[in-house]
Specification:
There is one protein chain. This protein has helices spanning 4-18, 33-39, 112-120, 133-141, 147-150, 162-171, 185-205, 230-238, 285-288, 292-295; strands at 24-26, 44-50, 53-58, 62-67, 73-78, 90-93, 97-102, 106-110, 258-262, 265-269. The protein has 297 residues and is α+β, with helices and mostly antiparallel strands. It has two domains: 4-120, N-terminal domain of MutM-like DNA repair proteins; 133-295, Helicase, Ruva Protein, domain 3. α1 packs parallel to α7 (185-205), α4 crosses α7 (185-205) and α6 (162-171) packs across α7 (185-205). The radius of gyration is 21 Å and the shape is elongated. The structure holds a DNA duplex (13 and 13 nucleotides).
Amino acid sequence: MPEGHTIHRLARDHVRDLAREPLQVSSPQGRAVETARALDGRSFAKIDAYGKHLLYRFEDDLTLHVHLGLFGRFRRQHTPPEEPKGEKRLRMIGERWTVDLSGAVACTLIDPEEEAALLSRLGPDPLRRDADTERFVAALRKRRIPIGAAIMDQKVVAGIGNVFRAEALHVNGIDPRLPARELGDERAMVLWGTMAKMLADGVRERRIVTIRGADDKPVSAGRATKGEGPRARADRVRHRTVHVYRREHCHDCDAPVVRSTMASRTVYECPVCQPEGSAGPSPTPSLAEGEAAGRLF
DNA sequence: AGGGTATGGTAAT
DNA sequence: TTACCCTACCCTC
């Protein structure tokens, strides 16, 4: 589930549902007992989201750091909650809502020093007002690694994951293997604007939707087509809101989507929309101004 | 029942 | 680059 949009959405939801009220905090599986004990009975006033990291600001200057990793997940239910099922690392019971955390990579208290170290490892987050776009452009300028690897690096831009990588590069016609430094500042600004808009849309929609007017209510899509295997059908049904990610064919031109591996993650690209060595078409002057990110949403 | 896969990241090699 | 972390889900047998 989690790329940056999921994290920022969780921050908003948890503030709405749990902030400013005493919480019963526990660790049903006993894997975060100390953390739970320290927080039990306290309340948090706000949550800061940076890239894929959540920082819950509890009373007495206690900060809870949560990182979902690949498997982490929050579930919500009405208070009083049912007995925990499956792995539940942390449970926060509020007056109206109860939230359970499972599978997270990080769920610990961090002190200011650790927080500073964490934030120093993160680049600008397009979902934050204080994001420094120039840092992103400057980071690309000096990297020879493929652009597809660069935007997955949280120090270059915080919050992008495998889906947004595929979609943001595709819509801009960029070959994932193009060296980052060869993209150029103007195209880098446009790419930033794309990522910012996709992430913001993701927060609003609560899911990744990169196709204008996309509506993934299955109509005839749920029925298997003759000669179509179950995997292909599942991909089509579940992933029709994106252009190339985990699709068999490009949404725009229907060419077969090519899969490859970069840093042990699958890269999805359309060889027609994103020709080898392509940095995309020339940016239009208005977009190249660099104000695109602020205007698009 | 068991295998494959997943929107992530770190540490070891 | 590879191993690992070790949850949930979907599929096949």
